[in-house]
Request: fold
Amino acid sequence: MKQILTLFLVIAIAIAVFAFVPSVGAASKFETIHKFVGLTDGVYPYAGLTYDSAGNLYGTTKLGGDTKGTAFELKQNSDGTWAESVIYVFSGTGSGYYPMAGLTLDSAGNLYGTLSQGGANHNAGQVYELTPDGNGTWTEKVLYNFCSLSYCADGSTSYANVIFDQNGNLYGTTAEGGASDSGTVFKLTPNGSGGWAESVIYSFSPTEGGEPLAGVIFDQAGKNLYGTGFAGGRGQGFGVVFRLSPNQNGSWTYAKLYQFCRLENCRDGGNPWAGLTFDSAGNLYGTTKFQGAHGDGVVFELSPTAKGPWVERVLYQFTGGDDGGNPQGGVTFDSSGKLYGTTYYGGGSTSCKGGCGVVFKLVRDPNGDWHETAIHACSPATSNPAASLVFNGSVLYGTSSGASGTGQRFGAVFEVIP
Reply:
């Protein structure tokens, strides 16, 4: 009898464990839908993707065309495969080049983005618009050239996407320029005659955080802006999370919500490269590329409190091994509340220095703890994903930059089905 009871106990425990584990590590389907082959179709897609109502994907590559970068479109064929076309080649002749940011789509089908270099002033980059001509070609229009003011007080060198507000104004960041050359948050406003006027709504200083590499997001009310600064803040400058709130007189009030490296040995992470994501309860989620318990970055959550301060919680500490390391992109929710993201390094492959990176999933258990699963270990052909994923309601799409893959590796576009 004792043996039978013991057997039943073992079976019950096994069933309980089995019932729990799939919720943490349930399989997600990964598939590469396009591999870039060279200068003709683009090289090194560092930024993420956007999609239109028909399900077409749009993105950029840092190089390609005449080596100055491209904007591309991916359309799905009837057999499920995807066809890529280059919709614009950045020439660098009288305009900007090296797009490190993705594209933003408006309701009319126009695309907007930033270029990190080139432009009319001191190689400081620009903001641009791409408009479809109806015959398969696209026309570029320069909306603003950075460094138009003395000492680049209006900003310089943008690596980030732009976003629209409810009135059709554009917002973005520059990693350099501004009053202290620590970067800016800027606003572009249509002037009614086809042009755009730029205003700096905040200039960073080293103590307040600086060098924003990612763009900003609005809260659910569409009022306040939230973002990250890669540098600045505490000590040696491990970055911050910030909020900008509009005032009635047109100015904006800056608030530091969190300064990284507050905990011993920087266990709370440091140097957030990517932007932020809200959940429905108003909590913020993001990643840091460095620091953490193992020095390989973290996934974090920031929650507001009734008294005002925001509280950080580390959801996962990357080790740089099979679980990935040094996330350069942020995290994205699927429809069931799971978080997905990528890491630039780690993954266990020895074919890339530091590893080729991973695509990962974080699942919250009934106790509120999060568990990470590397759902895809990148190879040289799909190495070094550098951007956040985009979720269209059923499928997640992303890019891998291919930056450190061996041989002729130029990056790829992939999908993940949760």
User: Anything to note?
Assistant: The domain at 29-417 is CATH 2.120.10.30 (Neuraminidase). The longest strand covers residues 82-89.
